[in-house]
Each structure stands twice: as structure tokens, then as C-alpha cells.
Write a structure and sequence with these properties.
Length: about 350
């Protein structure tokens, strides 16, 4: 470990311990200062813990080196030599974890997310698959202990959907879901297929960081708000009131329409949530347009036109094409319980690419 790196680790640890001491001893805290320090302490917690672990291992290493160099007991020296090998491995692993923790954070990682799913090519089968994907993410949110609020759900009959969107909130939602954007492809025999021929269909997934008003300001004068009668499933009510809402952000041409709720006010609120996320994402992409294309290509750009994953039901496998990962556990992936196995690998791959610089 070079001196600059060690100095940086010492500075982080000193800062963490200084904040910890402040919060444990101060009696009269300004509320804003308390919140700021609590946030900083939380952000430094994981890396401070890892730095302490690294420094403890280095002390253990030094103790064993002294035994190896200065003790006459051959048996003790042999044990020390074994310990040194094991400790060196632990130090290398700890340094790697610290480097990952030091990587620049995506400012949106701790945000909630707006999930959008649309049926793609494949007719009714695409709509059925889109509905299954939406359910998969809902069940995955439950596994993670996140809140999943349906914003829009446009049915097309027989259990299929044209599209659906949801607001997902909880710890680290966007950090775990951001690599899900893209085209998800399904291969299976539809129930209506009498010849047993496998069909290929697709659905698009978009995951946007949920934007608050403090993240992006939208001027009411820039909005065109139209109300109309909802169409599709929903009973007699849809023919009686203009509860559906379409909002157009004139400067960007972004359009969002929501018709799920009977309340026009609720539909407008949901539409604004989706609109804010879309505009925020567009602004963010403009700012990040100079990012390394080589790294973006490794785990995907998040473009909805990019095919990222195939779900092959006859073979029971799910393949993520960006990292050449195939798992033969389609049922537990579709019920959300094994989706983390794919997401963890995507995160690891992204971290490895960032470490390459």
C-alpha cells in the first residue's frame, strides 16, 4: 500500500471518529447540523469499518512476521508462516473492498425508482410476458422489503398488459434496479399454439430514478394538461367522467398519460411523478453524455432498445447477455426470490469495470 493511499484511509477514519465523537458528546445540536452529520456518518460507516478491519489485519501480519524472524520455536514459526499467508489474502481482499467503496457513487443510487414496462413485439404473448415481468418486480420488491405502488396498469385482456408503471421506494432501490432497463425477451410455447412451436416475444423495461421537486423544477406554464375519458377495463365508470390525465411538458415534448384512478387529482399526481422522473433522467443523460462508452457498453447503457436478457421457459433458463450469465432457475427468478443472483453479478461487473478506470 503506497503512502498516499494510506494517508487517504487515515483521513477517512479520522473524520469518521471525529463525527462519532461530536455526536456522542455534543449537548446542544442545531437540527440541520445534526441531520448533516448523521448523513455523513452513515455514508462513511461501511468504509470506516473496512479500514479498521484492514489495519487490524496489518497488525496481525506484523506480529506474525516478528515471530517468524525472532522466535527459536520451529513449530511456532511454521504456524506463523501459515498465518502470514492467510492474513496476506485477507489484506488483499480488504484492500479490494475498500477500493470499491471509494469508487464515485451514482448520486441516484439511494433514490427510489419509477419502473415502466411496455409490451413489445409478439402480440398477446408480449403482453402476457410484460404482465409477468411487472409481477416479478413487484415480488422482488417484497423480498427486499421495498414499497411498490402501482401508478399505471393498462390491461389488454387475457391477463396481458399494454404497459404498466410503479413507484418503488426503499433502501438502495435505484442502485439495484438501474441495470434492468432494456429489452427483455421471452422464448416459450404460447398456450394457443397447437403445433408446439416456440415463439419469441419481448417487453421493454425502463428504470428511472425517482425525482423530487428539489431535484428538478417544473414550471406550471410549461405544462399542457388534458383530461379525457378513460378507456379499456374499469367498468361503467370510465364512460362517465373525464378522470384520465395527459400531461405534456412543452419544452421537451415529454408526454405522460395516466387513467388508473377514478380521481382526476390522483391521476394528475401520479402523472407528475412519472413526468418528473423522465425529465430528470433526460437532464442527467445530457450531463453524462461524455462518460466512457467502453464502460457503458459492458453492463448496458440502459437504453430501452438494447436486448439485455432472455427468459427461455422450455429450457428453464435465464441468460443475461451483457455479462454472459446463464442460470437454470427461471421459476425462482420470476417469483423474485433469485433475481438478486443476476443483479449482484451485474453490480460486481460494473464495479470491476470502474476499477479498471
Amino acid at each position: 500500500m503506497n503512502s498516499d493511499f494510506r494517508g487517504k484511509l487515515n483521513s477517512i477514519l479520522e473524520r469518521y471518529e471525529s463525527i462519532e465523537n461530536q455526536m456522542n458528546t455534543a449537548v446542544d445540536f442545531d437540527q440541520q447540523e445534526f441531520v448533516r452529520l448523521s448523513k455523513e456518518l452513515s455514508e462513511l460507516g461501511d468504509i470506516a469499518k473496512e479500514i479498521k478491519r484492514l489495519f487490524e489485519k496489518e497488525k496481525e501480519l506484523q506480529n506474525n512476521i516478528e515471530i517468524l524472524d525472532g522466535d527459536d520455536d520451529e513449530e511456532l514459526k511454521a504456524l506463523a508462516a501459515q498465518e502470514i499467508e492467510s492474513i496476506n489474502d485477507a489484506i488483499a481482499e480488504s484492500e479490494e473492498r475498500i477500493k470499491i467503496l471509494l469508487l464515485p457513487k451514482d448520486i441516484d443510487d439511494e433514490k427510489g425508482a419509477i419502473l415502466e414496462i411496455r409490451a413489445g413485439t409478439g402480440g398477446d404473448e408480449a403482453g402476457l410476458f410484460a404482465a409477468e415481468l411487472f409481477k416479478m418486480y413487484e415480488m422482488y420488491a417484497s423480498v427486499r422489503g421495498w414499497n411498490f405502488e402501482v401508478l399505471e396498469f393498462s390491461e389488454s385482456g387475457i391477463g396481458a398488459i399494454k404497459g404498466a408503471s410503479a413507484s418503488i421506494s426503499g433502501k438502495g432501490v435505484f442502485a439495484r434496479l438501474k441495470f434492468e432497463s432494456g429489452v427483455h425477451r421471452v422464448q416459450r410455447v404460447p398456450e394457443t399454439e397447437v403445433s408446439g412451436r416456440i415463439h419469441t416475444s419481448a417487453a421493454t423495461v425502463a428504470v428511472l430514478p425517482e425525482a423530487e421537486e428539489v431535484d428538478i423544477s417544473i414550471d406550471e406554464k410549461d405544462l399542457q394538461i388534458d383530461t379525457y375519458r378513460a378507456s379499456g377495463a374499469g367498468g361503467q365508470h370510465v364512460n362517465k367522467t373525464d378522470s384520465a390525465v395527459r400531461i405534456t411538458h412543452i419544452p421537451t415534448g415529454t408526454v405522460v398519460a395516466v387513467q388508473d384512478e377514478r380521481s382526476q387529482h390522483k391521476n394528475k399526481s401520479r402523472a407528475m411523478k412519472i413526468l418528473r422522473a423522465k425529465i430528470y433522467e433526460n437532464e442527467k443523460m445530457k450531463l453524462e453524455s461524455s462518460r466512457s462508452e467502453s464502460r457503458r457498453g459492458m453492463v448496458g447503457s440502459g437504453d430501452r432498445s438494447e436486448r439485455i436478457r432472455t427468459y427461455n421457459f422450455p429450457q428453464g433458463r435465464v441468460s443475461d447477455h451483457r455479462i454472459n450469465l446463464t442460470l437454470y432457475k427461471i421459476d425462482s427468478i420470476m417469483d423474485g426470490s433469485s433475481l438478486d443472483e443476476i443483479i449482484d453479478k451485474l453490480i460486481e461487473h460494473d464495479q470491476a469495470e470502474k476499477l479498471k478506470g
